[in-house]
Input
Amino acid sequence: MRENVLIVGGAGYIGSHMAEFLFHQGYTPLVLDDLSTGHRHAVLNAKFIEGSIADSALLDNIFSTQSIDAVMHFASFIQVGESVKVPEKYYQNNVANTLNLLAAMLQHKVNRFIFSSTAAVYGEPQYTPIDENHPIKPINPYGCSKSMIEQVLADLMYAHGFQYATLRYFNAAGADPSGKLAERHEPETHLIPLILQVAKGQREVITIYGQNYPTPDGTCIRDYIHVMDLCDAHLKALSLLQQGAKQAIYNLGTGQGYSVKQVIETAREITGCNIPIHYGARREGDPAILVADAQRAMQDLKWTPRYSDLKTIVQHAWHIIK
Output
C-alpha cells in the first residue's frame, strides 16, 4: 500500500525534491505550502494545497480527509542573519506554527514525524567534526527555534509515544540530477548558487567574508551535502520509524569540508568562467570550520551519500541554472 506523506514546506528547495523523490519511491506525497518562500511550479507529482501550518482549521480538514501516515517538516524560515534582526518572525513560524502542526497530528493520531533541523543547534563548535553528542548551544534565534522543537519532540515521545526523527543538516546544496528542480531562494543566501549566479552573469562578483580564519587558505570550511542524499536519508529515517523506532537524531553531512576558495575554484573548473571575487569583513557568528561526524546516520540508516562530492554538487547545480 502506498503510504501518504504530508510534506509541509513541500514547494521549497528541499521539500520539493523530497516530494518528487517520495513519488518515485512509491509513496503518495501531499504538499502543504503557503508559498511565502516556495514555488508552486516546483511541485511536480504531488497533490498541492496552498495554506499554512498556522491554520488549525485547514490542518484539521487535511488530517480528517487525507489518511496521512507520516509528516515531513520543511516549513521553517532559515536565514540566520534575518533571525537576529527579526527574532519574533522565527519564533512565530518555526516554533508556534510547528506546535500547531504537532497538536493537529496528536489530535488525529498521526504519530510519525520527520523534522529538518540544523547544525546551527550546536552553536560555536567545541570540536570538529561535530557528532550528535556535541553540546546544544545555539547562538542565534534560528538555531534556538530548531532546538526548541527538538526538545518538544522528545517530550512528546515520552508523554504520548510520538515517533520522530530529527535530521540536523550541515550545508544542503546541489539539485535534482535530471534538471527538473533547483535551489531557489529569494533573496539567495547560499554560497554555491551565489557563485553560479556570478558565472551566469546575474551578479558581478562573489564576496568572501573573511580571509584570515585559522584554515589552510584563510576562508571558512563547510560540509556540503547533496539535496538528493538528504532525501535518501529522510526516506531511510521514515523506514526506521515504520519499523518501530521511537526516536532518531542524526547529523547529515559527509565528514569532508571544503573552503570557500575551494568551492569557487571548483565552480570555475565546472563552468569555465572566471568568477571574480571580492573580500569583505568577517560575518559575526561564522565559525571557521563546520564539518559533520555523520557516522551514526551512516551506520543506523545504512545511508551512504552518493552525490555529495563537491564536483558533482556544483555540476548538478550548474546544469539547472545555466
